[in-house]
Amino acid sequence: MKTKKKRKITVIDIILLCVVLASIYALYLLSAPEAAAPGDTRIHYTVELFRYKTGFAENVVIGEELYDIERGYHIGTIISKYEEPYLEDAPDIEAGRFKRAEVEGLVNVYVVVEAYANITENATNIGQYQVMVGKEAFVKSASFAGSGYIAKIERVIP
């Protein structure tokens, strides 16, 4: 009949466990993203929320903080809003061509945001969030959420 020997925990086992835990913690610290410093240049950028139902602009509240939905980054404060009719190409049978026509019940909502950014040769960053014209933006505030594209960026000169 065989019996199992019980193994005692030794000092070497404790040291080995501490080394493994310290290594895991060090890897975590190296892989964690660093918080970006707030920028020093004030910018205004416009997010075009396209193809929303008429009246959606009423949900956008001036003065609210705006966040990126995907990563939760704070990306500025809403300073203004406006809407324009949503346009699509439609056939003009009489003229035999296509022309831009309003789609009833749909609008594009433009949200103007103010933020402080770091501007370099390669990028404009609000913290870790990169802002560039044409970038798809998934945004939210306390009163709405939406998606669209960044349509315009302006540097505010004091």
Describe the structure.
The protein is mainly β. The protein has one domain. It contains 1 helix and 8 strands. It has one helix at residues 11-31, and strands at 41-53, 65-68, 74-92, 97-119, 124-126, 129-131, 136-140, 145-155. The protein has a 6-stranded antiparallel beta barrel with strand order 1-4-3-2-7-8. Strand 7 (136-140) and strand 8 (145-155) form a beta hairpin. The longest helix is centred in the N-terminal third of the chain and has 21 residues, at 11-31. The protein is elongated and about 95 Å long. The mean pLDDT is 91.
Globally, the shape reads elongated
N-to-C SSE string, H for helix and E for strand: HEEEEEEEE
Number of helices: 1
Terminal-residue CA separation = 88 Å
- The computed structural class is mainly beta
Uncertain segments are: none
Side-by-side strand order of the widest sheet: 1-4-3-2-7-8
How confident is the prediction overall: mean pLDDT?
A: 91
List the helices and strands and how they pair.
Blueprint lengths: L10 H21 L9 E13 L11 E4 L5 E19 L4 E23 L4 E3 L2 E3 L4 E5 L4 E11 L3
Antiparallel strand pairs: 1-4, 1-8, 2-3, 2-7, 3-4, 4-5, 5-6, 7-8
